[in-house]
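TL;DR need structure tokens for one chain.
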Amino acid sequence: MTTLPYPMLYPNIEVITMPISAIITRIDELKPNAYTATTKLGWINHVDGAVWNEIYKYTGFSDVMRQTGIAAHALPVGVDFSLVTNVYVDGEEIFPITFKDFETTGYYRGTDGKLNIYPVPTANDVTAGLRIVYRLPFVPHVAATEEAYMPVPFDKAYDDYTAAMVDKYDQQPESYTNNVNYYNNGMKEYAAWYADHKEE
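>> reply
TL;DR here they are.
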């Protein structure tokens, strides 16, 4: 158990976070099961992936120098087209287009996964005129020594989700439903607390 300024989230607030190994130990005491620590690490990644994508929603951006005749632009490593949230050309937002929007100003996904803009640039940028804004991708935990995202007391959601997964694979539907409900309620509580405490 560690007390520290919550990394990236609350630099001015001290919270208590737990290493994943401690959460797994607690889960095994509360709900004995035959599943490996690796499997449970994967389940905890499911939870933190949801926290990252649905609650934190961190964004980054890439400023691109456009070149004459080049419409396609590679996204940063690890960023999929589905993570793109906004695109700006010369400070003005442009929007996604489809084959039905032929010759409409906007952007679209190329067959190679690159972000394409239309119309195609007719001059080289002197300063970067294309800005791509995207959600930062979730990077799964790889070791049980890492800290889980949700601090005490919201970390009980890890217990509820893992218990639900044990019930799912042990074919205990009634207990599974109860634990999923506990988990969903826990996530709502944390989301509300985060919204009230995050640094603007």
